[in-house]
Structures are given as C-alpha cells and as structure tokens.
Amino acid sequence: MARMRKQAAAAASALVLTLALAAACGDHGGHPRTATGTLEQLAAKAGCEPDIQTDATELRQADCATDGGRYVLMTFATDRGRREWLNGAKDYGGAYLVGGTWVAVGDRTVVTALRGRLGGTVETGTSHHRERHGS
30-33 contacts: CB < 8 A, separation 24 or more? Predict the structure, then answer.
C-alpha cells in the first residue's frame, strides 16, 4: 500500500512538472516570446532596414517599412524609460507593440502583424481629439 502511494505521488509530481513546463514553454497563443536585443537586432527580426532618427543613450528610434506597412521602432535604456514614454504617448491614441525595453508604433494592423515576429503585447492608446462635424 505504501508503495502505491509513493507511485501515485511520483506520478502526480511528474504531471505537475509537465504542466508547469508546458505553460512556461508553450506557444504563447501562436506568438513568439518577446524579442530582446538592440534596435538593429529587433529591426532584423522584424524584417526591416531601420532608418535611424534618434540615437541617444536613453532612446534610440528608427522608421521602418515592410510589406505590411510603416511603423516606428524604439528601444529604451531601461524598462522604466519605456513605461514613462508609453504612459505619455498613449494619451495621443494609436497602437503600440510593447516589449521589455522597446516599443513599435503604427497602425493596429501593422503592429498586430509585427507581433508575429517580435512577440510582445499590443496596447491601444486613448485619443482625446474630437472630430468636428458641420460648420
């Protein structure tokens, strides 16, 4: 009886370990793990030849164009810098593909497609601009 309990406990432990590994190594909903790297490395993973616009210690920014559309790719020196920039930028609306220390900004369809190459999370800003109707 004691041997059966040990076998059952070992089987349960193996099942828990297998499920934990499957969750950690899964396909992330069909999207790759969030990419890391320099601006140039991220651009290469995205299939873009970056046109560098800003090359500062805290922020590097490039325009990118692919068959899927145009977007801006930015890397930040820190996660905090990325969060602070994103918090301010979201007030202007738009779609953002967000990684650890990088952001891609473009049309929602473009950043959603880009997620298939870079992983990350698609976030949407809130525009406070109103359209004028009439005269």
Answer: 30/116, 31/115, 31/116, 31/119, 31/120, 32/116, 32/117, 32/118, 32/119, 33/119
